Amino acid sequence: MTDSQKQEITKLRAKGNGYGKIALALGISQNTVKSYCRRNNISADSTLSVEVSEPLETGTSFCECCGKEIHQIFGHKTKRFCSDACRNRWWNSHLDLVKRKAVYKYKCPGCGREFEVYGNSHRKYCSHKCYIRHRFGGRQYEQK
User: Fold this and answer.
1) Which residues contact 126 (CB under 8 A, 6 or more apart)?
2) Which structural domain, as residue segments, surrounds residue 129?
């Protein structure tokens, strides 16, 4: 969580906003907001000497990976990440959230082993090595 997000949480909480509303406004987890508020004794009715600013504009969110501010374009799909690098880093660290619908199960004609493959419905062999061994009868294929 960035320092600017921490400041916004403090400001929005001082205005009386709930954890869910703050989480939506900042684009972070509700549990993250709740944990931060509890660790720092920030409650909705606390009288903090905080300079209250306007809430975040509707066209602004934060990157789910690095927390960098993202300006949204009205009428376009909402951006969740600031860059492809952040998107790849986040999805690679959250593989359990990927909904893989195109998983195919096969039995390799070369070695007889059962294997799963994602996204390729025409695959036959579990590896290139099995393909070469089965296709060319065990001898190595040499290129000219």
Assistant:
1) 106, 108, 110, 111, 113, 115
2) 103-135
